[in-house]
Amino acid sequence: MDVWRHGNFVRHYASRTLRPPEVILLARHAHQMQGDVLELGCGAGRVSGYLVELARSLHGIDVSELMVDHCRQAYPAGKFTVMDLRDLSNFDDESFDCVFAANSVLDVLGDQERREVLREVRRILRPDGVLAMASHNRAHIPRLRKPTDIRGARNLVRAFGKLVLMPWRLRNQRRLAPLLRTESDYALVNDDAHDFRLLHYYISNDAQRLQFEQEGFLPIECLDSQGSSVAEGAQADESAELHYAARRAPTGPQ
Ligand SMILES: C[S@@+](CC[C@H](N)C(=O)[O-])C[C@H]1O[C@@H](n2cnc3c(N)ncnc32)[C@H](O)[C@@H]1O
Predict the structure, then answer these.
(1) Which of 34, 122, 142, 249 has the most beta carbons within 10 angstroms of its beta carbon?
(2) Is 105 in the pocket of ligand 1 (CB under 6 A)?
(3) How many angstroms is it from 106 CA to the middle of ligand 1?
(4) For residue 122, is it within any domain?
(5) 217 pairs with which residues across the strands?
(6) Through-space distance between the first and last CA atoms of the chain, rounded to whole angstroms
(7) Does residue 29's CB lie within 6 angstroms of at least one atom of ligand 1?
(8) Dihedral (CA of 247, 138, 190, 183) sign
């Protein structure tokens, strides 16, 4: 929370580039996207810029004031509020047609909190409403980079930067090591995002589908990073992130 609340990542996230599965989700669930939409962790509005054009109303929330200020200026047709996604109690029951949570924003939470947010999302979705979200793919964990790995650098300058930052990255990793978890249905992983300063929730395609059912959703689809459909039982381990659509089920959490 400290990293997100106090860091300045506006430039890092201010882009208009959608990922292939996001384009597919926007198109395939156009009916819900054209209604009242809530975006969780909207960041610098990468997806908000499209939602604001499609939706009857868009409300983006983010814990970072800098991100929210940027979105207010860039997309004045939307409403943007500094708010923690862990507390959605300000929103009325059945008040949104779609809740969008791009770029694995729910994965900043631990298991209990993440499930509570899913339940809250179900409460504020209208019947037939859709949750579109991405999440870190547990099957991808063996492919994650180590702090000592400079392969991901796009050019020599960046490779040098990673080399210089290596002791700090290693220190960040040591600091978070006691919080790592490996459970049957999920793992908490310290990945390379923002120089190993974050812990993220990782879950497999099948475990996420089951979790949707447990929390009162009907899973509709899972897409890999190329936008291809991921069938039940498939791992899609080359995709760091999996993208899901799930419909509000008539019956609540089991
Ligand atoms: C990985 S960025 C994604 C930004 C944007 N959704 C995108 O796809 O470009 C995660 C965003 O979630 C926000 N965030 C992190 N924890 C949050 C929380 N508890 N409540 C609301 N926003 C949060 C961060 O400030 C950041 O803007």
Answers:
(1) 122
(2) yes
(3) 8
(4) yes
(5) 248
(6) 30
(7) no
(8) positive
Residue 199, domain member (yes or no): no
Give the type of residue at 235: Q
- Ligand 1 atom nearest to 67, measured from its CA: 27
What domain count does the chain have? 2
3-class DSSP state of 127: strand
Distance of CA 218 to the CA centre of its chain: 19
- CA of 208: how far to CAs of 105, 196, 234, 254, in Å? 15, 24, 12, 15
Domain hosting residue 112, numbered range: 2-136+204-248
* CATH number of the domain bearing residue 131: 3.40.50.150
At 78, list the tokens: 């939307």
What tokens appear for 225 in the block? Answer: 């990073």
DSSP 193-223: TTTTT--EEEE-HHHHHHHHHHTTEEEEEEE
Write down the pTM of the prediction: 0.95
Q: Which of 42, 57, 147, 53 is nearest to 100 (CA)?
A: 42
pLDDT by residue for the chain (254 residues), tens only, comes to 888 998 999 999 999 999 999 999 999 999 999 999 999 999 999 999 999 999 999 999 999 999 999 999 999 999 999 999 999 999 999 999 999 999 999 999 999 999 999 999 999 999 999 999 999 999 999 999 888 887 767 788 888 887 888 888 899 999 999 999 999 999 999 998 988 989 999 999 999 999 999 999 999 999 999 999 999 999 999 999 999 999 999 999 98
| Dist CA 152 CA 59 (whole Å) | 35
Whether 64 lines ligand 1, by a CB cut-off of 6 Å, is yes
